[in-house]
Amino acid sequence: MTRRLFWKILFGFWLTFLIIVQATWLMFNMLRPAERSEFARGIASIAVESVASRLHAGGPVAVEQQIAAWPSDQRNQIALVPVGQGLSDRPVLAETAAAAPGGARYRIVYYARPPHQRGPFDIPREVWLPAAFGGLAFAAILAWYLSRPIERMRLGFGRLAQGNFATRLGPAMGRRRDEIADLAHDFDRMAVRLEELVASRDRLLADVSHELRTPLARLTLAIGLARQDPSRMAVALDRIGGEAAKLDEMVGELLTLTKLESGHDSREDYFDLAEIVKAVVQDAQYEASAKGAEVALEIEPADEGFEWLAPGNGKLVSRAVENVIRNAVRYSAEKGRVGVTLNRNRNGNTYSLVVADEGPGVPPEVLGKLFKAFGVSADGFGFGLGLAIAQRAIAVNGGAISARNRQPRGLEMAITLPAAAV
To answer: What structural domains does the chain harbor?
Structure first.
């Protein structure tokens, strides 16, 4: 790749150089042809007068010593010819006659530059030779400067394609601050995100396989018992139906979580948060009444005319609020109380929904795992997928959810959602 880039840069450099030089030369010849001719003749006249002075003072030997010190191309343009001897048929820019100290007379002739001493496209050799070597050096340095990080990125993409998600290119860029370095840092961010997604997928697959084994084992056990004792077929069928319903519910929640993890589009829609909370509390109260518990709703401000508009997907928010309140009812004590408080902040930019129960709370080391899929075991605190779905649903709608233990007992969930701009 370095060689290909080198030749492309070198060809582009030479092509640009030739176009610029030829365009400048053409414009100079077209716009000021007389000035170019006069400039060349002026230089020739100065050289001829200098040689004539040296001839008059020191003779032909002094002239030869003077001309020997000139550049090679100029030595070929000046000639000292005895009077009476024929001249070359080359174009003459300037000439004069002068006498040597012994009385011999000579003609001093300054010829135009021979064609074989001109470079390509009539560019002087003094111009195109440095340009050629300069172009080689420039192309080599630029190709090396560009191709080295590109080669590292190519190798990085190869390692990433092989599953090495720990590949990072940022440190290899050093102090480089340009678009290539920005691309390397973007590559690092992509690698980090891919590593997180793959780790999340593997963890989810492991957790799902673990969680599915329990109902499947119970299904197998129920089928085995039914075969051993046909008289208990009805009980076994009820157990099988219940376990199948749990499996169906778990698969549905997994599909919901997968959609949310992949970035569910909340759309530019609006919903009334207060109406959603009221509907969920009403349904939860029916469930809580079976254990003599109470779900109390408090809305501040209590003005019925106030519209609790929020941007986003109302169905996702309703699902999240339902998961939080149902968990609070499930883990509340008999004849306990679940408090639901909805209010808005002073600036009116966000809404806050707080759900507090009087249950056993959660061990401090478990708080950080509440919103992870299968993050909490089922040994009394089996939140499963519900809170993971709630956390992602709230996040998709631009909000946040948190949990903390209450004193002396109970758990408090706080949901924050942005308010619609009025």
So the answer is: 2-135 (no CATH), 192-261 (1.10.287.130), 270-418 (3.30.565.10)
